[in-house]
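Appendix B. Worked example

We walk through a single record from start to finish. Start with the input: the chain for NCS2 family permease, Haloplanus rubicundus, length 464.
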Amino acid sequence: MTDTSESQSRVASFFEFDKHGTDAKTEVVAGITTFLTMSYIIVVNPAILSAAISIEGYSDGQVFQMLAITTILAAAVGSTVMALYANRPFGLAPGMGLNAYFAFTVVIALGIPWQTALAAVFVEGIVFIAMSSVGARRYIIEFFPEPVKFAVGAGIGLFLLLLGLIEINVAVADEATLVSLGNVASDPVALLALAGLAFTIVLYAMDVTGSIITGIVATAAAGWGLTLAGVVDGGVLTPDGLPPINYDITPLVGAFVDGFQNIEPISFLIVVLTFFFVDFFDTAGTLIGVSQFGDFLDDDGNLPEMEKPLMADAVATTFGAIVGTTTVTTYVESSTGVEEGGRTGLTALVVALLFLASLVLVPVVAAIPTYASYLGLVLVGLIMLQGVTDIQWDDAEWLIPGGLTIVMMPLTASIANGIAAGIISYPIVKAAQGEHRSIHVAQWILAGSFVLYFYVTAGGVMGG
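Next comes the structure step. The output line below is what the pipeline stores for this chain.
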C-alpha cells in the first residue's frame, strides 16, 4: 500500500494535480473521453493515405494495415510528448485535411511521389521544431493575413466534405455541371452510407462520446451483415477479401529519405509551406480554443508557455514522417476531455496508452469498407464549417481573402490553392483601401511567391 501511495504521489507531483485542481481519476476519465472522440482517425487516415500510397509486393489491405499502425504510433508519440514535456491535456494524431491534401493533391493530382511528399512533411516538422525552439511564433502570426488564417479551417471543412460525399457515391462527376447527385436510390453503397451518416449525425447531435467512430463501425457492421445474409453480393458492401495480418511497417519507415531524390524545388517548397502554415495555425487555433474550456489562458488571452505544446506537435510531425504518415496536429476533440475535467498531461498520457492498446485491433480495422471510413470526413467537414463565424464578412479586407481561401480549396481540390488565393488577394485589397502602411513587407513577398506558385502549377511548368 505504501508503494502504491508513493507512486500516486509522484504522479500527482509530476503532473501538478494540486496546481490544476484535479486528481488521477478525473484525468483518466478525461483521457478515455478524448481518445473515443478522436479514435476515428485510426480508420480514416489509412483510408485516405492508401489511395495514394502503394508498395510493391504488398496488397492494398496490407498497406492499409501499415498505415493504421503508423497512424497509431504517431498519435501515441505525439500525445506522450504533450503529456510529459508540455503537461497539457491535449491529444495528437495525424491531422484531417492535410492527409487529404497529401493524398489527393500532392501525390495524385501533382504526381509527386509519396516518398517525396513524406520528405516535405519531414522538412516541415524540422522547420516547426526550429521555430518553436526559438519562440518564433509571434513573428509568423504577425505577417500571416488574419482573414486567411481564420478561413483555412472552413475551407478544409468544405474540401473534406466534398471528398467524403464523392467517396460514398453521393456526389459524382458530371460533364455539364462538373458534379451532381449520384444514383443514390439504386446504389447500395450510397444508401447504406447515407443511413450510416444519418445515424452518426443523430449520435453527434445527442452529444454521444465517440459518435464518429461508433457510426463508422456500425455502418461497416451493417455492410457485413447484409452481405452475410445474402441481401447483396460479396464485395459490394464489403472488401473483396480480408488481407493477411500484417504488422511489418519497414517499407514505410524511412521511406521519406528516398523522397529527397529528384526534387522539383518550387513545388516542393510550396508543399512544405502549405503543410507548415496549415499545421501551425490549426494547432495554434486549436490550442487557444481548447484552452478556453480549461481556463488555461492568461489575462491577455494567450496560452502560457505555448511553445511547449507547439514543440510536441512539431516532434510528432517529424516522427510521423519518419514512420510513414502525414502531419500530426493537436485535435480539437481534446475539448471533450477538458470538459470532463482533464487539466494535465496525464489526460494526454492516457490517450497515448489507449492508442497503443488499439494496435491489437489493426486486423479488424482492415475489414472496414472505404465508404464507412469516409463518413468521418463528411461529419468532420461539417464541424469545421463553424470557423466561418470568425470572419468579419462585412469588411472587404476579410470578405475577399477569406472567401477566396474557403471556396478555392474544394473547387480546385487543393488546400494550397486556397491559401495562395487568400494571401495574394489580401495585400491587393488592403492597398486598394489606401492602407499601404499596414501591409507587412513579408505579406507582399508571400503574395509574390504564391503568384509564382500558380505560374508553376497552372502554367504547364510541372508538365500539366
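Two observations about the output. The chain has one domain: 26-458. Strands lie at 92-94, 171-174, 178-181, 328-330.
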